[in-house]
Amino acid sequence: MLNEAVVKAMNQRLALFDLDNTLLAGDSDHAWGEFLISRGLVDESEHRRVNDGFYADYLAGRLDIHAWLAFTLEPVRGFSIAERDSLLAEFIHERVRPMALPAGRELVAQHQRAGDLCLIITATNDLITRPIAALFGIDELLATRAELVDGGITGRIRGTPCFREGKVSRLRDWLDQSGTDASIANSVFYSDSMNDLPLLELAGEAVAVDPDDGLRQVARERGWKIISLRLRAG
Q1: What is the pLDDT of residues 155-183, one digit of tens each?
Q2: Catalytic residue among 20, 29, 192, 196
Q3: Where are the domains of the chain?
Q4: How far apart are CA 47 and CA 148, in angstroms?
Q5: CA distance 215 to 197
Q6: CB burial class (10 A; 0-12, 13-18, 19+) of residue 21?
Q7: Considering only the top CATH level, what class is 4-227?
Q8: Is there a smaller number of Cβ atoms within 10 Å at the N or the C end of the chain?
Q9: Is 196 noted as a catalytic residue in this protein?
Q10: Does residue 86 contact residue 39 with C-beta atoms inside 8 Å?
C-alpha cells in the first residue's frame, strides 16, 4: 500500500504561469528595451521603433522570435558576465519590481501552499526571466534559452524557443527529464495571450488572465475561466 507522501507526489498538480502581461503588468522584454534607452546604451528613436515593432508582431501572432532575441540582447553582447548581471539587477529593481502584480504573487503563493508544482513558462529569454522567477519565489523556469559561449552572448537561441507550440514541446521534455509524476493533463495554465493557445488547449484547466481580445473570445466560447490580476474585483 502506498504511503500518503507517495500518493501526494503522484497526484501533484502542475501550476503553469505565463509571465509577461500575466504575472507582470507589462512585458519584460519590451521594458528591457526601454531600460536600455534610459541608460543611453542604444539610439533612442531607432531602438524604440524596432522594439515597438517586434512587440506589435508578438501581439499579432507573427513574431520572429529568433530576430527578437538577437535584437534584445545585441546591446549587451560585449558585456562581461559581471557587467551584464549588474545591469540586469538594476533592470529588475527599477522596471520589473513595479510591474510585479501583488495579486500574481498571491496566486503563486496559493498554489505553493496547496502543494502544487509551480513553473513559469515564457517566451522571453532566460537571462532576463530567471531573476524574475526568483522574484516570485518560483524555482522552475522554462524560457527561451539564449545561447552562451564561454559566458558570452551569441545572439542565437539554444534549442527550441519557448514560444507558441514550442512551449508544449519544451514542457513535455521537461516533464520527461524532471522525474516528477506531474502531467499536462493534471495542470492549470494561466496566460493572457493567444500565442499560448497550443498549451492552453492541452492543460487540464485553462485560465485566461487579463486576456487579449483573441484569447478572451476563445475563452468565452470554450467556457474557460477569465480572471484579472490587475483588477481583482473586476
Answers
A1: 999 999 999 999 999 999 999 999 888 99
A2: 20
A3: 4-227
A4: 23
A5: 8
A6: buried
A7: alpha beta
A8: N
A9: no
A10: no
Strands lying side by side in the sheet with 14-17: 152-158, 140-149, 117-125, 14-17, 187-191, 205-209, 225-227
Whose cell is 536600455? That residue is: 36
φ and ψ of 125, to 5 deg: -70, 155
27 has catalytic annotation: no
Active-site residue, from 18, 27, 126, 210: 18
> Tell me: the pLDDT tens digits for 46-92?
999 999 999 999 999 899 999 999 999 999 999 999 999 999 999 99
